[in-house]
Structures are given as C-alpha cells and as structure tokens.
Amino acid sequence: MSTRNSGRGNAQALPGTPPHYPFGPVRALDLHPRYAELCREEPVSRVRMPFGGDAWLLTGYAEIKQFLADPRFSSLEATQPDTARVTPLPLRPGNLLTMDPPDHTRIRRVVVKAFSMRRVEQLRDRIREVVDEQLDQLVARGPPADLVASLAVPMPVVMISELLGIPSADRERFRRHSDVLVSTTAYDAAEVNRTRTALEEYFQELLEQRRSRPTDDLVSTLLEAMDTERLTPLETARTGVGILMAGHETSLSMISNSCFLLLSQRELYARLVAEPSLLPTAIEELLRYIPLRSTGSFPRRATEDVELGGVLIRKGETVIFQRAAADRDERVFTCPEKIDLARRPNPHLGFGHGAHHCLGAALARVELSLALEGLIRRFPDLRLAVPGDQVPWKPGLIARCPARLEVTW
C-alpha cells in the first residue's frame, strides 16, 4: 500500500499544496493534458476544489470502475455542506443521484421500467417522428441554421416531457431552470437554490394534479410509488426533478457535442454518410471520446477507510473522478486519442458503472442515434457555417455544450 494518505476529513493528503482544480479553463471538447499525465502516473491524486476543501481525483479506468462499484463511497454523505465540490452548493439529498442503497434501490426500482430497453424501443418511432419534425422545420427555414436550438434542445425536451407528462406550455420554463441547476459559475448560489426549490414545488403541483386525474405517465407512476414504496412527497418531487434534468440535459449536450465533433472534423461526418452502417459503433465511440462534463463527477465520500489504486482514502474524505480520462486510458483502449468510428470492443464508462449506472442510457443512445441518422440521411453535405474555433460555448456549466452550432448545406 502507498504511504500517501490524508488523515481525517478533507485534511492535506500529500506533501505541499495540492493543485487547484479544475486545472485550467475548459475549451470546447479539449481535455486538459494534465488528466492524461495523471492517468499514466498517478491515477489517484489530491486536488484542491473550488468549494469545500480538498478531494481525491480519480483518472484511471480500473480505479474509477472499482470506485463506482464500491458501496463504501456514499453519494448521500456528499450532500454535507463541507463536501469538496466544484458547484457553489452541495447537492440536495432525496433524489436518485444523492441516494445510497437501500433507498436508492427502492426508488430506482419504481422508475427503471420507464427507461427499459423494451420501453425505449416502443418510443423509437415517436423519437424518429420528433427528429423529422425538427428537421422539416430546419429545411423550411433554410440555411444557415442553429443545430442546438433546432434539434439538440427540442427533441430531448419533448421526449422527457412526454414520458413524465409535463404540459407543453411548461417546457420552456423548465429549460430555463435547467441551465441554472447545471451551473458551476454561471449563476450565483442564491439563484441556484431558488431554482431548485421552484422545480421541486412545480413537481409537487404535478403530483397533486395526478392525484385527482391519474394518467399513463411517469409522474403518475411516482405518485403510486408514494404508497407502494413509501416515498415521501419531497423524495418523490426530487426524484422527478432528477429524472427531468438527467433525461434531457445529457442528451441535448451529447447531441450538440457529437454534431460539433463530426462537423469540425468533417471527414468523420463524410464517413458516416458513406457508411451509415457504422452508426452503432460510432455512437459508442462518441460516448467514449467526448468529455461531456466540464470538470470531474459529482462527489462521493468514503464511509470507512478504503484502499484504492494503492492509496489509502480515509473515512469522510471526498472523491471525484474524470470519466473522460479513464476512457482514454491506454491500458484499456488502443490509440485512445484517435477517434475510431469502427472501434471494437469499446468498454467505455460513458454511462457510469455500478448502482448509479445511468438510468436513461438506452433512451440517450436511441436519441443520439436517431438524431445523427436523420442528419446524415437528409443532409449529406451538412457543414459548419463558421470555422470550428469560432463556435461559441456555454460558459460555467457542468456539461459542455455549444451555445450555438451554425450549419449550412
């Protein structure tokens, strides 16, 4: 075992002062070179976070996979105010993201059927219909067009809203709230707090509406679970908010980023147009290669002393990880910096691992696949309307995403 350890709490771990995290400004889809260095040389390292003190940063594939499967690292404990983190406020307890088993298991069991592969396959035709509706509007308006506003945002918003049963009149409202909740620096802590509360209150209103008028949607399923699984009203509302956020924010960012990557390296898009049968492996490669998060993961805290990657992590210490670094670990992936649209095998961690493996992975895959399939089918000569280095990006958010992606054809 390494002698590197940090004592209790968030005390100093290594000689000297840990480097400040993040390591530098986030630029487009670039991954800071420090991650690759750490993955090779020190896959469990100490960093100083913007809020809450010091944390352990994981960058190696094996170390992250072990961490994600180990129940001794608690998501619930990481809601404590002194948790080291990149966001101004700690996450609130009471939603799937911040729960540990058995509560996490109990509530996940309620909603998992809505996101099963069978259910997603039933939605495939509807997703394709929504994609075609958005692309029809794109054609009608003519070039140039913004792929973020015209496709990447509306399609996932429509789908998660229909799954939950959110009225179309309310969708723009929750999109505005969503940008605030995924902020690291773009909004102040007071506004983030107000937005969290507003969304929770909105979901409680929806639950009350379903109590008198039940329908076939996920909000009604959550309402039933308040009785069958003994969910509290606050747990139910926070679970709904978590599903709403995760159900569209990741997809819209991933669609936007994938389009940017394929069009800024135009030979990749041209290859998909020429070989559409590559789309399934291309989707997995995009999930592997794109560093979706601007910084590391949401934090977890050790509930007892744990050895990880030869390092002793003490009870109470905070751990984060950078998934994109692990998915470029040369011990696992051949030529990891190369984008190989035909890569096999591809055991990436794009949707996580363990108990918190992304609930909506199947839906996200189908949404990304059908969005790209629609583009390469209908716009074989699609290209960026501005140079790639002039594409504007949303600042200060947890997930990377172009602010606009102007294209022409």
From TrEMBL:
Keywords per UniProt: Heme, Iron, Metal-binding, Monooxygenase, Oxidoreductase
Pfam families documented for this protein: p450
Region (Disordered): 1-20
UniProt keyword NADP present: no
Superkingdom classification of source: Bacteria
Family: Belongs to the cytochrome P450 family.
Listed name of the protein: Nocardicin N-oxygenase
UniProt organism field: Archangium gephyra
